[in-house]
């Protein structure tokens, strides 16, 4: 996967999380056309960059607990 494709995917994940529109991990992976294990890897990377992400089983969506933005390799809190 090239750099731009990966960055666009990270940005899309963050956007969907901010909208509280991810659905379950299985649904989000399907929406992004990736495996669940790849989704978990992307979430791990975003967390390492400072995103405070957790999955809310009650609402069945990922939630972002800080003002995190990632733009082409730069992350901002």
Task: Give the helix/strand layout.
Blueprint: H1 3-18, H2 25-32, H3 36-48, E1 53-56, E2 61-64, E3 69-71, E4 74-76
Antiparallel strand pairs: 1-2, 3-4
Helix pairs in contact: 2-3
Structure description:
One of its GO terms (biological process) is regulation of DNA-templated transcription. InterPro entries: ArsR-like_HTH, WH-like_DNA-bd_sf, WH_DNA-bd_sf. This is Helix-turn-helix transcriptional regulator. Pfam families: HTH_20. By secondary structure, the chain is α+β, with helices and mostly antiparallel strands. The chain has a single domain (3-76), classed as Winged helix-like DNA-binding domain superfamily/Winged helix DNA-binding domain (Arc Repressor Mutant, subunit A). Helix content is 48%, strand content 18%. The chain contains three helices and four strands, in the order H-H-H-E-E-E-E. It has helices at residues 3-18, 25-32, 36-48; strands at residues 53-56, 61-64, 69-71, 74-76. The protein has a two-stranded antiparallel sheet. A two-stranded antiparallel ribbon has the order 3-4. A hairpin with a 4-residue loop joins strand 1 (53-56) and strand 2. The longest helix has 16 residues, at 3-18. The chain is globular.
